[in-house]
Description:
This protein is α/β, with parallel strands linked by helices. Helix content is 48%, strand content 6%. The protein is built from 14 helices and four strands. It has helices spanning 11-14, 19-36, 51-62, 88-100, 102-120, 124-131, 141-157, 174-184, 191-204, 224-232, 253-264, 272-277, 282-289, 339-364, and strands spanning 45-49, 69-73, 293-298, 316-321. The chain has a four-stranded parallel β-sheet with strand order 1-2-3-4, with helices on both faces. Helix 3 (51-62) links the parallel strand 1 (45-49) and strand 2 (69-73). The longest helix is centred in the C-terminal third of the chain and has 26 residues, at 339-364. The protein is globular, with a radius of gyration of 22 Å. The mean pLDDT is 95. One of its GO terms (molecular function) is dipeptidyl-peptidase activity.
Amino acid sequence: MPFGKESYKSPETLGFLNSQQALADFAVLIRSLKQNLSSEGSPVVVFGGSYGGMLAAWFRLKYPHVAIGALASSAPILQFDDITPWSSFYDAVSQDFKDASLNCYEVIKGSWAELEAMSAKEGGLAEVSRTFRTCKDIKSVYSAQDWLWSAFVYTAMVNYPTKANFMMPLPAYPVEEMCKIIDRFPHGATNVSRAFAAASLYYNYSGTEKCFDLENATDAHGLHGWDWQACTEMVMPLTCSNESMFPPSPFEYKEFSDQCMRKYGVMPRPHWITTEFGGSRIEQVLKRSASNIIFSNGMQDPWSRGSVLKNISASIVALVTKKGAHHVDFRFATKEDPDWLIEQRRQEVEIIQKWIQDYNADLKQ
């Protein structure tokens, strides 16, 4: 953080939090390291997952003289403008739950209206607070809605084949585990109580939480930095269709930009990313202008829908796994890793080794 604790204080200091600055910082760092380590001729490959995956792909496009290749895992570089259908993200989250159990999907889909009806009654918010075992009574039903929403979205993202603690400590295939919780409820239980029990797996798998703080939760993962980027350059329009298990919702640019103005005093630049890095007609553009990028994606990950899922050329390759989740290839290896994940990583290593061999062969010429 360039201004220490003051870095998040104002648009003037936050202005340095943008993708072009990040790429330039990496370029300066890599050149400096190579100088200091007397390794000017060493090849460099960049790796990134999620936003970092986007940076890795863009770094290879912008600084081909600094990095010989990039592994971009779960990198939604096509989630801008209207390149990818706006509803694809939440449709994919919903599909994960539907694949685990149709009943589970329908219970979650039915819980939102039920939650709203519960809160609208006299003493409704107190009842919602009791149902959600909140530490303090909540002031708005949207706090409960957001709490459920986040649990289901993040669990779909990190639906890993082995137990992990990336966002929260979770068991292997946590979407299936959530759906088992919902499906085990006796007939006649409310949708809201089932949805709460399922979401509790995300927030309390360890079983140590006595109550839940829905309105003053800490930002353990520093996600408020992403809020700034979404309000400036990372404008990814996401909507919920009727097929989704979430309440249908549109993307209203004016409403979004008004929120950003109120929160940060800035207006979003909705088309800047595609102006700076491209995205439209990605196959034709990259086939002629780029090389040595691996786009790896797992179809359990809702962000995969905004990434590159087909090979573009012999050296711009898409590795897609049916059961993979958010940059699962970057998780550390475990004895429980399934064969498809071991094979995906083997392919990645093989491709990168070839880049390095080609680079070294060119040096000798």
